[in-house]
């Protein structure tokens, strides 16, 4: 487990975590969030998470900050 920055997508009512994407830093995450928000009805959040990472992909998230 390691602490990483993730772009997280929530869908539904109540919001449910649907996807997560590993980001190199908060600046990149916020840029991608802005683009995704314009092109989608989902809610997005940039967050520091405790996750299992393999081959530069988040396999699972154990906790959200």
> How many strand units?
4
Q: Mean of residue pLDDT?
A: 93
Q: Gyration radius, to the nearest Å?
A: 11 Å
Low-confidence stretches: none
Shape: globular
Main sheet, how many strands, which sense, barrel? 4 strands, antiparallel
Which structural class matches the secondary elements?
A: alpha+beta
Q: Number of folding domains?
A: 1
How much of the sequence lies in strands comes to over 45%
Share of helix among residues? 10-25%
Question: What is the overall number of helices?
Answer: 1
Report, as a whole number of angstroms, the end-to-end distance: 14 Å
Order of helices and strands: EEHEE
Q: Give, in spatial order, the strands making up the sheet with the most strands.
A: 2-1-3-4
Describe the structure.
The chain is α+β, with helices and mostly antiparallel strands and 65 residues long. It has one domain (2-64). The chain has one helix and four strands; from the N terminus they run E-E-H-E-E. It has one helix at 26-38, and strands at residues 2-11, 16-23, 43-54, 57-64. The chain has a four-stranded antiparallel β-sheet, with helices on one face.
Question: Briefly, what is this?
Answer:
By secondary structure, the protein is α+β, with helices and mostly antiparallel strands. It has one helix and four strands.
Summary tags:
single chain, 1 helix, 4 strands, 65 residues, globular, alpha+beta
Topology:
Blueprint: E1 2-11, E2 16-23, H1 26-38, E3 43-54, E4 57-64
Antiparallel strand pairs: 1-2, 1-3, 3-4
